[in-house]
Each structure stands twice: as structure tokens, then as C-alpha cells.
Design brief:
The complex is a heterodimer of chains A (489) and B (248). Chain A is of the alpha/beta class and 489 residues long. In chain A, 58% of the residues lie in helices and 11% in strands. Classes of the chains: A alpha/beta (489), B alpha/beta (248).
Chain lengths: 489, 248
């Protein structure tokens, strides 16, 4: 009896386990990558992208016998996404650096890159990064990349972007002096070689400056502690390298160089050389960011409050053309996202008229114009809340409409206007975080930069939150105080 | 010097409704005229036409040497001197709530007449004393009772040294004992020889203080005479009915 039970159990086990193991092996791997990334890594149609990393993923999938599915994440959040466990792998020109090794495990490298300095073709001021440092020139690159970390370490004036197009755009428009990028990007954006099929032709008039330098390695990131997958990927990559397939792919994309032969023996990077930052150092950097936040908030609100009043009075008392202009202004600026406005002021104006605003000016102007629409409506509501009897009483004392507005109506409306305006001030204070898209480094952006470089999402995050609260909580109390004192009469 | 007021054939329409129909009225300098009548009869509208707060469609109005013409907009050249010379008191006071009692009274003399601040202050203190509000110069309107507010409003109008006063139901919002405070101030002004036009429901006050009572009903002048004539011996049935209702 017991024997037959055992036989049955064994039979069931034999029937189930191979399929279970097979199912696990055949499970597709999810690879995080920046689908908006760029040439030549991965680009084009999001459902069917091209790029040397796409070819490499296909080759690896064949070796593994498992499909690799791509999932989008912005370049600088690839490793956090991996850490959270949303994806199995991450691959998008991720450098095997001590800092990155703190956040993820890496396979052996699949490409050896160097950094390349890029300038406008007629610019003879520098031939090296050192020249840039001495002449205090501004260098642009991708945020979260090792080029960005190098600029930071060397304390070179820098501008960091969320995508790889931004630096080239700004370089051509003379917003910055140089761009520092990994050689593959430099090749596809700068070298006018017509055999390079997917070459970017949008940024003419650029040149490579000096020798490529600061060698580094691209590897595939695997969630920390997932040794089995790291080993599986390492072995598959080894087979892709030894079969000559990697060489074929890199050659096809004009990226092969004799240097790459070193990939045939696995290379290791030392994790212990990671950068770290003390509290005092990052607190100082966050304080600088907070300063920028405060500057944008105060200057933006001052602008909004100053132009909101003439807009409101035009709408209330102006002749019809002025009235319609004011209505148009309010509807237009309330109807478009401030993000679009900032983009237009910063990137669009130089194309339309030859006006290059510096990022901070563009941010203040953008918020000022946007919030002026809201403030105008607050003014209008406040002014209209004053009973018509006040106008009549003033008129019957012989006071002119202008005098009545200035001395009687407007001073009374302030108590209605001030509480919602204080609320808007707090809203603007928090809204300022979007200005990072035109590369202004305020508090939120500073947090992002610091954590990208050094990790410490929680610790630096709490400090950043504390800084925001220290500024916004007193404002909130002020707003409620004004409401209590003046709001309800 | 007080001014006379002449209303000649004034008609005002609001959409299809006729609010004033061919109203004519002469008010001599120093005369006190009470406008009486049912609600919606046109008495407040007529009063507000006298200083241009309302416009009218036909006819003309002379206030002292100035003429108001019919039309949507009055010329400022006529309006400004009329408004400077005829003070107006409202049912709901309309003091300036953000200014102290003293500043309420000095604001217009300083900004409109260009009187110096010390001169405007001493004039205001004198007037506030006259209306019994001298001890409240630094109070704000919301700290005052209705009767006190109305007395400040009267002082504010007097500070412009007017030639006459237009009073729009100035006691309607007040309790009976507060009404008397305001009415006795007004009687004093009448003795000073100011031309006073008042819209009122106070039959007793009209009898006591007015030289003439004018009854407006459905936009027309129904009765016009001394208080004794109009109140005690009304010519029209409509007036008799009105008096009966008010006195009930």
C-alpha cells in the first residue's frame, strides 16, 4: 500500500517538476532601458527600436533561450527601477563604476568607452577638459552619467540634461561652451561620415576636440544579490563575445576598435572606490538649491502680482479691446501647462527672435506670466466683492473713479485678495521643481543629482523634505492667519 | 448759500418698465421736501437722478447753476460740482470700513477739495462733535451702532460743506430710539437752511420737519403740497389708501 503511494508521488513529481523548471527558464526577462534614449544605443520606433544594444539583446536572448522584453525607464532612474524589482535587468550604456556597483550588480563589460569633448567648429578656446576648467567654460552632459560625475569631481562649471539631445541643442545655440559624452554618442552626433546610416544631422558645425579619454565599461545591470541571473547573463554574454557576434554587431554600428579585444577576458571594477559625501557637504549643496527655489518663488510671484493687477483692471474697466486682451491673456496662460511655457521661453524664443534668456530668467518669467493669470482673477474677485454702494458713496462725495479705486475699493479688496494669493505663493513654491527641465538646479533637482551620484535616496530625501517644510509650513501658517484675520469679516 | 432744484418732465424707463413718467418738481433753496410713496413708486430713483447716480431718458434737471441732461452718460463738468455740493446719505450708511471715523470724514475734503490735513481734521472734529460722535473719532465703522454710523455718514457729507443733502431712507435700517438720534440731527440741519430732499417712510418725521410732501406713485407725482394738505386732506384715493396702510 505504502509502496504504491510512493510510486504515485514519484510519478506526479516527475510529471510536474520538469515543466516547472522549464517554465521558469523560459520566462521572459524584463530589461529596463530608456526608450527615449538615443542613437546609437537604442532609438526609433518604441515597439521595434534599432541600435547596437537592441542587436546585443537579440543575440543574448538567442543564447539564453529566453525572450528579453524591454520596459521604459528614464536613463537616470534605470538603477532605482532595477533596485525596486520592477525589471530583471537594466541596459542602456550603464557604466560599471564604483557608484553604480553600490546600486546594482553588473555582468562583464560588453563595450569599452571613452569620453570625448565636443565644441563648435569655430571655437578655438580649448583643446582639453582642463582648458575648460581654467577658462571657466560651461560643459554640458547627461545627468547621472559618468561624464557628469567627472565634471562634478573636477568642479567644472556644468549643465546637466535628462536627455542626450539637450546638450547638443544648447551647444549649437551657444548656451554652453562644450559637451562631454561617451564616444558612441559623439560619433553619431558630430562626425560627418555619410556611411554612418543613422547619423544625427540636426546639429551641424560641431567638432571633436582632443583625444578620447577616461576609459570605462558598459555592463548589464542585475538586481543586487541575484547571483544566479548575473551568472546566467555573464555566461551568455561570454558566448556572444567568443562567437564573434559582439564584434560583428559593434562593427556594424561603427563602434569596433582594437581596444575592444580586451573584452575577451572578463574585467572587474573595484566597488570600494565609490564616492561618498558627508552630511555637511550635501546639506550645503541642498541649501544652494533651496536658495534658487526661494529666488524663483519670490521673483516669479512679484512679477505675477505686478502684472496681474493691470490685467484685472483692464478686464473690469477697460475699453473692449483691452478687456478682450485681458480675457485672452487669462484664458491662454491658465490653459497651457507651465512646462510648455518654460520650454517655449527657453528653447523656442531663440528660434523665433534672437533672444536667449538664461535659464533662471526664463524660469522667473515663465512662472510670472503663468501665475499672473491666476493673480489677475484673484484681484478681479476681490475688487468685485466690494459692494457697489462704496462706489456710489464715494461718487456722491465727488470722488473720481480712479481716486475711489485707489483709496476706497482697492484697499478694502486686499483683505479678500491676500489669503488666496498667499496660497498661490505656496503652490508656486512647490511648482518651482519643474524648472529642472530647462536645467535650473533648484532644490528638487539638486536632490535628484546628489542621489544619482551618491545614492542615499532616503537620507538625502529626508533632508530635502525637511528643507521644503521649513520654508512652506511658516507660509501656510501665515496664509491661515491672514484668512482668520481678514478673510471672514 | 443753498441751491434750488428744478426737475422738468423727467422720464426714465428700464426695459419695458417706466420708472419715472414726466415728473416735474421745483424745490426752493433751503426747502425740506419729503418724497413719499409705495415701494417701487420711483422716489429713490428720482433722488438718485438728482446727483447723477441714475441717468434718465427725457427731460432735464437743474441743480443750482448746473444742468443734467438725459442720456446714458452725464458730462463730468456738470456732475462733479453737483456731487461736491450735494451730500448723499444712504439707508445702509456705506461708511468706508477700512478707515477710522475721523478718516471717513476727512478723506473727501482732503482728496477732492485739496484741504490740508490739519484743516480737514479740525473741520471733521467739529462736525463729529455736532452729530454727537466726538468721542468716537478713532473707532472703526464696525465698532459702531447703526445710529452712530448714520450720524458719522451725515458728518462725512457735511464735511464737503454742501449746499444741500439727499437722504435715501436714512432711518429705515434703525431701531426706533436710534431713529430719533438721526432725525434730530437732520432737524438741526434744516434750521441751518440746507436744502434737503429725503425719501422716507416716516410719516411723523415728514409732518414734523418737511416744508412739503411729494407723493410718487407708479412713477408719477400724485400729490404735492404742505404736510397738512397732503397728509391730512389727501386729494387722491391712492394717497388716502397709502396713508391708511402706513399708519396701520
Amino acid at each position: 500500500m505504502s509502496n504504491s503511494w510512493l510510486t504515485l508521488l514519484l510519478a506526479v513529481a516527475c510529471f510536474i517538476s520538469p515543466t516547472a523548471i522549464q517554465a521558469q527558464e523560459k520566462r521572459p526577462l524584463v530589461c529596463g532601458t530608456d526608450l527615449e534614449g538615443g542613437i546609437p544605443y537604442l532609438f526609433g520606433d518604441k515597439n521595434d527600436p534599432a541600435g547596437f544594444e537592441v542587436d546585443l539583446m537579440d543575440a543574448l536572448a538567442r543564447e539564453l533561450g529566453r525572450p528579453i522584453r524591454r520596459q521604459h525607464a528614464a536613463f537616470d532612474s534605470l538603477l532605482p527601477t532595477l533596485q525596486r524589482g520592477d525589471v530583471d535587468l537594466a541596459m542602456n550604456g550603464l557604466e560599471i563604476t564604483p557608484t553604480n556597483l553600490k546600486q546594482a550588480d553588473f555582468t562583464r563589460p560588453y563595450y569599452i568607452y571613452r569620453l570625448q569633448l565636443i565644441a563648435r567648429i569655430d571655437d578655438e578656446r580649448f583643446v582639453s577638459l582642463n582648458d575648460c576648467k581654467e577658462k571657466k567654460l560651461t560643459v554640458g552632459t547627461l545627468s547621472g552619467s559618468s561624464a557628469a560625475r567627472l565634471l562634478e569631481k573636477e568642479e567644472i562649471s556644468r549643465k546637466l540634461y535628462d536627455d542626450q539631445e539637450g546638450p547638443f541643442k544648447d551647444l549649437v545655440q551657444k548656451q554652453i561652451d562644450a559637451v562631454l559624452f561617451d564616444m558612441p554618442i559623439a560619433l553619431y552626433y558630430v562626425v560627418p561620415d555619410n556611411q554612418i546610416t543613422h547619423r544625427k544631422k540636426d546639429y551641424p558645425g560641431l567638432k571633436l576636440v582632443g583625444e578620447p579619454f577616461a576609459e570605462g565599461f558598459y555592463g548589464i545591470a542585475v538586481k543586487k544579490g541575484n547571483g544566479a541571473l548575473t551568472k546566467e547573463m555573464d555566461q551568455a554574454l561570454g558566448r556572444v563575445i567568443r562567437s564573434g557576434e559582439l564584434k560583428r554587431i559593434l562593427t556594424k554600428w561603427h563602434l569596433w576598435s582594437p581596444d575592444q579585444y580586451r573584452l575577451y577576458t572578463p574585467l572587474r571594477v573595484d566597488e570600494n572606490a565609490a564616492l561618498s559625501l558627508g552630511f555637511a557637504q550635501y546639506f550645503l549643496l541642498l541649501l544652494q538649491g533651496a536658495g534658487v527655489t526661494i529666488l524663483i518663488t519670490f521673483a516669479g510671484m512679484a512679477l505675477a502680482v505686478s502684472i496681474g493687477l493691470p490685467i484685472a483692471t483692464s478686464r473690469l474697466y477697460g475699453p473692449w479691446p483691452l478687456r478682450w486682451l485681458a480675457i485672452g491673456y487669462v484664458e491662454f496662460f491658465r490653459g497651457i501647462p507651465v512646462l510648455l511655457l518654460l520650454y517655449f521661453l527657453y528653447f523656442g524664443l531663440p528660434e523665433l527672435i534672437d533672444l536667449k534668456l538664461n535659464p533662471l530668467t526664463a524660469a522667473i518669467l515663465g512662472f510670472g506670466l503663468n501665475y499672473a493669470a491666476y493673480e489677475a482673477e484673484i484681484y478681479r474677485g476681490g475688487i468685485q466683492s466690494i459692494p457697489v454702494g462704496q462706489w456710489e458713496a464715494s461718487a456722491s462725495l465727488g470722488m473720481s473713479p480712479l481716486l475711489t479705486f485707489r483709496r476706497i475699493v482697492f484697499p478694502q479688496s486686499i483683505r479678500v485678495i491676500l489669503p488666496p494669493m498667499t496660497n498661490d505663493f505656496i503652490a508656486l513654491f512647490k511648482d518651482t521643481s519643474v524648472v529642472s527641465i530647462i536645467s535650473v538646479i533648484e532644490l528638487s533637482k539638486q536632490y535628484q543629482i546628489l542621489t544619482k551620484t551618491y545614492g542615499g535616496f532616503l537620507q538625502i530625501g529626508l533632508t530635502t523634505a525637511a528643507l521644503y517644510l521649513v520654508m512652506s509650513v511658516p507660509l501656510g501658517y501665515l496664509s491661515r492667519y491672514l484668512e482668520r484675520r481678514w478673510g471672514a469679516k | 448759500m443753498s441751491w434750488s432744484i428744478t426737475v422738468r418732465g423727467v422720464t426714465k424707463r428700464f426695459g419695458a418698465r417706466t420708472i419715472l413718467e414726466n415728473v416735474s418738481l421745483n424745490i426752493s433753496p433751503g426747502e425740506t421736501v419729503a418724497l413719499l410713496g409705495p415701494s417701487g413708486g420711483g422716489k429713490s430713483t428720482l433722488l438718485r437722478c438728482l446727483n447723477g447716480l441714475n441717468t434718465f431718458d427725457h427731460g432735464e434737471i437743474h441743480v443750482g447753476p448746473h444742468r443734467l441732461a438725459p442720456g446714458a452718460r452725464q458730462a463730468r463738468a456738470a456732475l462733479d460740482p453737483i456731487r461736491r455740493s450735494f451730500g448723499m446719505i444712504f439707508q445702509d450708511f456705506q461708511l468706508f470700513p477700512h478707515l477710522s471715523v475721523l478718516d471717513n470724514v476727512t478723506e473727501a475734503p482732503r482728496r477732492v477739495l485739496g484741504i490740508s490735513s490739519p484743516a480737514a481734521r479740525s473741520r471733521a472734529v467739529g462736525l463729529l462733535d455736532r452729530v454727537g460722535m466726538a468721542s468716537h473719532t478713532h473707532a472703526f465703522p464696525q465698532q459702531l451702532s447703526g445710529g452712530q454710523k448714520q450720524r458719522v455718514a451725515i458728518a462725512r457729507a457735511l464735511a464737503m460743506e454742501p449746499r444741500g443733502l439727499l437722504c435715501d431712507e436714512i432711518t429705515s435700517a434703525l431701531d426706533p430710539e436710534l431713529k430719533n438720534e438721526v432725525l434730530s440731527v437732520l432737524e438741526g440741519l434744516k434750521r441751518d437752511g440746507l436744502t434737503i430732499v429725503l425719501v422716507t417712510h416716516e410719516i411723523g418725521f415728514a409732518r414734523r420737519a418737511a416744508d412739503r410732501v411729494v407723493m410718487l406713485c407708479d412713477g408719477k407725482v400724485l400729490e404735492d403740497g404742505t404736510p397738512a394738505q397732503v397728509l391730512d386732506h389727501p386729494k387722491t384715493e391712492r394717497m388716502a389708501l397709502f396713508l391708511q396702510r402706513v399708519l396701520e
